[in-house]
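Quick illustration for those who missed Monday's session on complexes.
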Amino acid sequence: MNVVGRSLKRKEDRALVAGRGRYLDDFTLPDMLHVGVVRSTHAHARLGKVTVDEALAGPGVVAAFTAGDLPELSEPIPAYGQLKNFRDYAQPVLARDKVRYVGEPIAALVADTPYRLADALARVTVEYEDLPVITSTESALGSAARIHEAWPDNLAGVSQRIIGEPEAAMRAADVIVHERLYHARSAGMPIEPRGVVAYEDRLTGALVVITSTQTTYLVRGAIAHVLGLPVERVRVLAPDVGGGFGAKAQTYAEEILVPALARRLQRPVKWMERRREHFLATCHDREQTHEVRVGFRHDGTIVAIDGTFQADFGAYTIQDDAAILNTIVHLCSPYRVAHYRSVCQNLVTNKTYSAAYRGAGRPEAAFVMERLLDIAARRLGLDPADIRRRNLIRAAEMPYRPGLPYKDGVDIVYDPGDFLAAFERALELIGYREHRARPARPAGPRRIGVGVACYHQGTALGPYEGANVRVDPSGQVYVFVGFSSQGQGHATTFAQIAAQELGAPFDAVTIVGADTAALPYGFGALASRLAANAGPAVARAAREARRRATLVAATMLECAPEDLVSENGRLHVVGLPERSVALGEVARAAAKGKVLAPTGEAGLNTCAYFYPKTVTWAFGAQAAAVEVDVETGAVRLLRYVAVHDSGRPINPMIVEGQLHGGVAQGVGAALMEELVYDAGGQLVTGSFMDYALPRADDLPEITTALLDHPSIINELGIKGAGESGAIAPGPAIANAIEDALAPFGITIRELPVTPARIFEMLREAR
Ligand code: MCN
Ligand code: SMO
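Prediction with dioxosulfidomolybdenum(VI) ion bound:
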């Protein structure tokens, strides 16, 4: 009975679709107070007097706190922790002497209702002494002003990787393509903004923090660290989370502030982020400017790539260069490039700070590489498909070693895969050949174009993930994990694995997660890592539970353990289905100790962890067909194709759903989403009126196809999928638009390709 690999319906959807989900704002506790955050309205300033008297005098206002009132928050917010390549900085929970971006927390107000709180927030006055505002990487490099005073400049650090001898190799190139490309700042924009509820549990003594997060463990560690508490006294839970996309994958000021206030006030407190606040207070990502030279032979073979780029981090660098190293390592990774150099200057500016957003540095890399290939193809007189065929690493070259370490320090060895097959499949599904063969239409205002883009993705970063499988005497199986889900479908996929390994019915398995008390150690839902890390942990724990169940059942049925099969929730003697015992009865017997001896363990309760040696490598190709109106610059997506290899899919429907979601976000990055700042450091696209998210009618039919080359990193052959769909849409769509506008000879160098940008390019071309 194979449960893994089947497109079973998602266990979580019945409740969510029926409106029975429990999101952060659904939690209201007796006696609960509401916290609001006073935020900086200036991008870079010394902080003067903060006056809260008028706010405090308002009806229902209980308390007001500035940094000086909360000495327990004097430790800065701990950074990510895995990498430490950048300069040190201190990000305060509440600003002390200066502010570094519009939206930075300055003070907290507490009131009895959210409405009185909103009124009171408007009555706080803050004095600012303005400092020069830095809103671009060029001005960050050139300015005498320092965002972090202790630094000699505004450079957080330089990240780089080199293969071979790019300079020497470049000299031998027949043609060099040299371009400057820009990927705009955008953000994950989950439907549910962030929020935190905290209280001291008098029964257990724990500080309980319910937060809309992807990283329960990281938040737990940060709270314990700043408040000086044992980790055991802090319990972090996530309720249903309405999307995260990376934006909820690190610890924020409010996740430490709100529990601190719960302790101060000895009352439950809640903070719920508003959308306008979310635009300023939740991390952005993706702003990079690349200057790259690619050397080619006449036949399109790449001889060398030499590039520099600048990343605009905003005010703080909470994840160090995790995403930047992704850009560097992935820039040419599906292609054979013997000589490569990439150097990034990581700069701080007076904007909202950045952290990984779905794809985490890879969409930028794919944009640069796949744009350069199309530009080169035109210069060399080659078809964009042929230039890729010439350079894609072949299946026969696997396991390929590009000659670079991954960010975990391990030398990269690619997982089995066939990039060319994925690419050809995408071409076939979009009708590439037919499109190229089609006679040019009479030149009307609407032009059709097709674009393609390949990607490769290191997925499933370590360090580990674990699971605890427990068989209940009722026969129900509970799998305890600590990480939280944001919509990925973990309650379904991990239940599939547990059911299969244990021989239990899929319906009898429940995943209990998002609670650090459920399992002491874990990492979180990021880096497309859970399927390939928690998956094997669940499998190992379930397998061990089955082994123990078999020993106990053998005693109960008076047979040899080797003669038993576990199927559909019962263990029976091979060939004798009536000589059987239910899994629940075995669990009950094992818990009573009656037949304890064979296992030496009480109950059927097993825990296992999986530590990957390094990442798995997923890959794929995407293709877009677009129609561009040359009179208005409007782009309509006609069709979209996503081919992805996630190794063995646990649930193909869920993997396809992940691709759909990723593509939708990639379409936003390609065509409409942009966080624009003015020279004063004010976000001018700070609402959904100005920051355009794709809507249902902006999305075409998305055709997906899954390839299945098992990973060699874990025993289940799984590679990741969660971020993958979002990597290639930018370049695939930009390439399609440029193809549609080929007669005008324009070159797309920036994302998003908005109607205004197209209109401007066409005007210049004419
Ligand atoms: N899966 C599978 N078979 C595979 C690989 C994955 O069935 N071979 C399933 C997994 O079991 C899981 C889903 O696909 O249900 C995604 O798996 P994985 O790639 O391991 O990613 P994670 O579970 O670690 O989730 C994190 C990832 C990231 S990093 C971002 S960003 C993102 C994403 O998931 N944010 C999301 N997908 C999202 N989907 C939703 N709905 N909301 C988000 O915030
Ligand atoms: S951006 Mo995903 O949370 O790694």
